[in-house]
Amino acid sequence: MSDAWTFVCTTGELLPGEMRPVFDEVTGTPILVFNLDGDLYALEDRCSHEDFELSSGVLDPAEGSVECVLHGARFDVRDGRALCAPAYSPVPKFPVKIEDGSIWTRDDRG
């Protein structure tokens, strides 16, 4: 677990309906940050079905899901749960904070 927060971007660079990948240098974890109607969420940028980056996929802001382009697995960006096969395991969720107009996240797993 890391107490160090990773800078993602400024709030103006991640608009509603957009997602942005970032790399947690401390833990070596790829993280994907989502803006759903102004609410920010972060998941590990790795499909739980196949080790493939979710950032290559498609964000559906209406459903609040991201779809892996490899096999079509979808995940809820709010909590990381798998929404359909072939994925059955959730994707780890991470905290997000806004400080002085900047978006930050971190891998908080113990």
Note the main attributes of this structure.
single chain, 110 residues, mainly beta, Rieske Iron-sulfur Protein, four-stranded antiparallel sheet, three-stranded antiparallel sheet, 0% helix, globular, Rieske_2Fe-2S, iron, Rieske_2Fe-2S_sf
Explain what you see.
The chain has 110 residues and is mainly beta. It has one domain (6-105): Rieske Iron-sulfur Protein (3-layer Sandwich). It contains no helices and 10 strands. The strands form 3 sheets. Strands 2-3-4-8 form a 4-stranded antiparallel beta sheet, with no helix packed on it. It starts with 5 loop residues before the first strand and ends in a 5-residue tail after the last strand.
The fourth-level CATH homologous superfamily is Rieske [2Fe-2S] iron-sulphur domain
Instruction: Determine the structural class based on helices, strands and strand pairing.
Output: mainly beta
SSE pattern, N- to C-terminal: EEEEEEEEEE
The spatial strand order of the largest sheet comes to 2-3-4-8
Total DSSP E strands: 10
Residue share in helix: under 10%
Strand fraction band?
35-45%
Indicate the CATH architecture: 3-layer Sandwich
Poorly predicted segments: none
What is the total domain count? 1
Radius of gyration: 13 Å
End-to-end Cα distance: 5 Å
